[in-house]
Amino acid sequence: MKLEVRNLSKTYRTAGRELKVLRNINFSLKEGEWLTVIGRSGSGKTTLLKCIAGLLSVDEGSIIRYDHWSIQDGKEEELQAFRRENLGFIYQDYQLFDQFRCELNVMLPLLPFEKKENVREKARSLLEKVHLSDRLEHFPHQLSGGEKQRVAIARALINDPKLLICDEPTGNLDERSRDEIIELLLKLNNEGTSIIFVTHDRDLMKLGQQTLQLKESMISNYLQ
Ligand SMILES: Nc1ncnc2c1ncn2[C@@H]1O[C@H](COP(=O)(O)OP(=O)(O)OP(=O)(O)O)[C@@H](O)[C@H]1O
C-alpha cells in the first residue's frame, strides 16, 4: 500500500485561537518503506500521525492518499474500516488495558469482528512472535516496560496491518529494551510492513529510507 501526502496542513482552532501546527508537508511512502519523523517537542509529530490515520481533520487542500483512495473523501464508517483493515498503532505509553490479561489485550481490536477462538489463536501466535508466550496470563502491571511494549506490538499486528504507525515507541524504555523493540520492528519491516516511526532518540534518527524533520513553524493567531 502506497501512501502519498501532499500539502498537508493542520490548524487547531480552540477557544478563539488558531494554531497552525503543520504546514505543507509532502512525502510519499512506498510499500514496505520506513519513514522516521523527528522534530522538537510540540513540532506536530503526533498531530501528523493522527492526520495520516484519519483521526484528525486536515486543512483544505491537504491530500492524504492510500493507493488510489484519499482519506479526506471517506465517510467515518469507511475510515474506521480502513484503519481496522490496514493500520496498526504503537504508543510511547503502551496504552494497554490494565484490567485485562496480555492475551485479551492483544485480542481486543478483532474481538467484535471475528470468531473468538480464531482471534485467540492469532493472539497466541503473535505473543510467541514477540517472545512472550509465557506471559499470556499476566496483567500489564506485572510486566516490564519492554514487555508491555511487545504486547502492544502484538496487539498492533492482530489485523495484519500494512502500515504500522509508531509514536515514540521506545521513549520510555532502557537501551536494551529499546534495542529489542527496534529489532522487532526492523524484522516486521523486512517482512513487508511499512513503518512510520516518530522518535527523539538520536541513535534512531537514521533508521529507514527517509527522515522527515518537522520544524516549529507554528503560527498562532487570535481569530477575529
Ligand atoms: N487537540 C488539540 N487542540 C489544540 N492544540 C493542540 C491539540 N493537540 C495538540 N495541540 C498543539 O499542537 C502542537 C503540536 O502537538 P503534537 O502533540 O502534535 O506535538 P509533538 O511534536 O508530537 O510533541 P511531543 O514530542 O512533545 O509529543 C502543540 O503545541 C500542542 O499544544
Automatic annotation (TrEMBL):
It holds the Pfam family ABC_tran. Signal peptide: none annotated. Residues 3-223 form the ABC transporter domain. SUPFAM superfamilies: P-loop containing nucleoside triphosphate hydrolases. The keyword ATP-binding applies. The keyword Acyltransferase does not apply. GO terms for molecular function: ATP binding; ATP hydrolysis activity; transmembrane transporter activity. One of its GO terms (cellular component) is plasma membrane. Keywords: ATP-binding, Nucleotide-binding, Transport. This is ABC transporter ATP-binding protein.
